Amino acid sequence: MTPSVLPEAAVQMKRSRLRRTIGDAMVVTERNLIANLRIPESLFFSSVQPIMFVLLFRYVFGGAIATPGMNYVDYLMAGIFVQTVMFGSINTSIGLAEDLQKGLIERFRSLPMARSAVLAGRTTSDLLRNVVVIVIISLVGFAVGFRIHTNAFAFLGSVLVMLFFAYVISWGFAYIGLAAPNSEVAQLMAFPILFPLTFASTAFVPSSTMPGWLRAFAEHQPVSLVINSVRALTQGGPTARWVIPALIWCTGMLIVFVPLAVWRYRRIT
């Protein structure tokens, strides 16, 4: 056997392993999507909360909040979109905690499948679930007066930014789900993280209305950057100013969250 054959064989082996990992992840994704379809109430009630936020801020608080140069409903919807995908990403934490509690992950270990497929499949299925929720919230937003003042391609870009952010957050919640003893605790562990990041942001009010110390935090935290990116892509304005820092934040968090979740998964199993 010539030396040149060995690298070629190694490359083929790596490609085969990658194809197997992707295939296993797709199987787990399909399994999770089927489980979601069997519980339609879960999707329904996960959509009710953002719909209530839209109606509450649009018709109750909207008249008291000034957003110069923009209708409040147009300002609001960017925050609702990002808040919705963030809260939807909690399902990653809950789902993994439930699988651990039921011993399902132990069953996966006994199968000839890639270990990373469990995490990749869960985060991917929750990403697809968020796509459905975004469609629902978009329809509600259009019904209450939300309008896109750029174009369809910019709106699609805003959706991609939201989904990328949601996918990144799902990996962070994957770590929480693997660290929690059960799904109830996993959900409780997620909310103290989500609420400060969501409400101490530019989701519902301009940062100019906040105290100086809180304004500095709100303007530079990743949730606000993603919200401002969505707002710029749907309403117009300097998009690069917001989109580039948002993507940098998302990429950096993904680089941190993925190894953390994988490390926790290997440590448990």
TrEMBL record:
<keyword id="KW-1133">Transmembrane helix</keyword>
<feature type="transmembrane region" description="Helical">
    <location>
        <begin position="242"/>
        <end position="263"/>
    </location>
</feature>
<dbReference type="GO" id="GO:0140359">
    <property type="term" value="F:ABC-type transporter activity"/>
</dbReference>
<feature type="transmembrane region" description="Helical">
    <location>
        <begin position="185"/>
        <end position="205"/>
    </location>
</feature>
<dbReference type="InterPro" id="IPR000412">
    <property type="entry name" value="ABC_2_transport"/>
</dbReference>
<dbReference type="GO" id="GO:0043190">
    <property type="term" value="C:ATP-binding cassette (ABC) transporter complex"/>
</dbReference>
<feature type="transmembrane region" description="Helical">
    <location>
        <begin position="152"/>
        <end position="178"/>
    </location>
</feature>
<feature type="domain" description="ABC transmembrane type-2">
    <location>
        <begin position="41"/>
        <end position="268"/>
    </location>
</feature>
<dbReference type="InterPro" id="IPR051784">
    <property type="entry name" value="Nod_factor_ABC_transporter"/>
</dbReference>
<feature type="transmembrane region" description="Helical">
    <location>
        <begin position="43"/>
        <end position="61"/>
    </location>
</feature>
<keyword id="KW-0812">Transmembrane</keyword>
<dbReference type="InterPro" id="IPR013525">
    <property type="entry name" value="ABC2_TM"/>
</dbReference>
<dbReference type="InterPro" id="IPR047817">
    <property type="entry name" value="ABC2_TM_bact-type"/>
</dbReference>
<feature type="transmembrane region" description="Helical">
    <location>
        <begin position="73"/>
        <end position="97"/>
    </location>
</feature>
<keyword id="KW-0472">Membrane</keyword>
<dbReference type="Pfam" id="PF01061">
    <property type="entry name" value="ABC2_membrane"/>
</dbReference>
<protein>
    <submittedName>
        <fullName>Unannotated protein</fullName>
    </submittedName>
</protein>
<feature type="transmembrane region" description="Helical">
    <location>
        <begin position="127"/>
        <end position="146"/>
    </location>
</feature>
